[in-house]
Amino acid sequence: MNAAHPSVAVTPSYSTFDTRSELSGAGVIDYLNGFDEFNVDDLFFPQESPWTASGVTYTSANNVVLGRVIELGIQSAAISTDFGAPVSGTFADSVPAVLFGANVMLIGDKVPVALLVRTNIDSYSFNLDVPLSADGQRFFGIALSKPGEYLTGFQFSVSGSGSALLLDDVAVGHKGAASANTDPVASAGGPYVGDEGSAVALALSGTDGDGDALTFTWDLGDGTKGTGSVPPANHVYADNGAYEIVLTVDDGRGGADTARATATISNVAPSLASFSIPSTPLGLTPAGVTVPISSSFTDPGTLDTHTAALDCGSGGVTAQSEVVGETASSACSFSRAGIYSIRLTVRDKDGGSDTKVASAPIVVYDAAGGRLTAGGWVASPAGAVAFAPTGAGKLTVSLTARYEPGSTIPTGKAELDLDVGKLEFRSTSLDWLVATETSAQLQGRGVVNGGGDYAFAIIAVDGQSTDGAVRIRIWHRVSGTVVYDSRPGAPFDESGVTRLGGGSIQLHAR
């Protein structure tokens, strides 16, 4: 805006001004519109014609509001039209308007601008030298002088179709004493932080020294806009990101104020539900074994997209993972016997993820895969027997297991004896046997010291270069309480086996 100086022109009918302070000094501003309520992320915000804002009804071929474009020198939203189209307005007649002013600028080519001001009894024409937006703005104001004459409308016209005129901070007023109205003050609070999908508390407010009833207009940055007597107290953002909040308060008497704040919303990872796989051992067929895997998930970020990944364990083959709605699904295929731990992962577009391990491993056995025989002893450490934690000694092991032709359940036995602590285990049935060339795992049921209902699992490593090694665990089938573990605290896999102190383990091919 140019520095203040005397009026540009004074006539018997009107005076013109090129600063806002001069126009304000000539009377009272009743309506003021900076168009900030349209200052959105979109470059253009179309308005159906005609439309009214703060005492002015705008009519033209295609009204638009041009958002802030710092590169062009446009610091706040401004009303414009298509290139070459005029910008027209009609004043509200609730207050006889005798003051009119606006900041004006051009985009495109620098061309002459004509202004026609209409009144109830006459019209006045002006030719304006308007700068390009990159060079700043020009203010033009007019105050009518004739008693009984008041403004009814205006029209800005540009020369040629290569330019568009932008209006900013349009003011409308009447003659009288210096403004008795006190402008309201807007407060957007913030900065705000929160998580996607969860309500973020907002502190949007406005005050007015005159006690005027305020109208709030808000833009929460994610496309949520509104107008009312009370601004929103909270808002749920559907996606993570950085959002600009714009709040404008209007006192209805020409006073308005705009405040801004930011909301930084964090991504929340999806949550995958636990999933189960077949608890019954699966017999290997010539075509292999395929197991469908599926689990649902939730994500508070309702705009997130998701991918899924399935880990079928060593030796398993993963099918293409699919996500439909909030369900991730795939399948694992197995071509050899083994015990497979299954992991499913779902990931959102922002990198948040959740992984769940299946409730139990998948057991794939080969009924034609051989048989297990073992006999000997291992050193049982202190802490191995739950009811005799200080006892250590020799644990005698005797194992036989095989699948009979056509059977899906192995036959054989498992006998374990430990003098220290008086532990004697005898199998009553076998559940499954998974055997490879170098190791086998056997699971079944039995009794401890002649009674109870217990389960056991044994890992046996063939003694091709040594006497062999075993890992043994016994637990109560109902309570799950472990009563014996040959390597307390160690993972139940081949890394936790104990070498035989005597005897041997053999795997026999059919």
What does this structure look like?
- The chain has 510 residues and is mainly β.
- It folds into 4 domains: 9-174, Sandwich (Jelly Rolls), CATH 2.60.120; 185-266, Immunoglobulin-like (Sandwich); 271-362, Sandwich (Immunoglobulin-like); 371-508.
- Helix content is 1%, strand content 52%.
- It has 1 helix and 45 strands.
- Strands 36, 37, 38, 39, 40, 41, 42, 43, 44 and 45 form a 10-stranded antiparallel β-sheet that branches. The protein has a 6-stranded antiparallel β-sheet with strand order 1-2-13-10-15-3. Strands 5-6-9-14-11-12 form a 6-stranded antiparallel β-sheet, with no helix packed on it.
- The longest helix is centred in the N-terminal third of the chain and has 6 residues, at 20-25.
- The chain starts with 8 loop residues before the first strand and ends with a strand.
- Residues 1-6 have low confidence and may be disordered.
Q: What is the end-to-end distance? A: 97 Å
CATH topology name of the largest domain, in short, is Jelly Rolls
Number of discrete domains: 4
Strand content: over 45%
Structural class: mainly beta
Mean pLDDT: 85
- Give the tally of β-strands: 45
**CATH class designation of the largest domain:** Mainly Beta
Oligomer: single chain
Q: Major sheet, described briefly?
A: 10 strands, antiparallel
What is the number of helices? 1
Percent range for helical residues?
Answer: under 10%
Q: Judging from the principal axes of the Cα atoms, what is the shape?
A: rod-shaped
Residue windows where pLDDT falls under 50 for at least 5 positions: 1-6
Global Rg? 42 Å
CATH architecture assignment of the largest domain: Sandwich
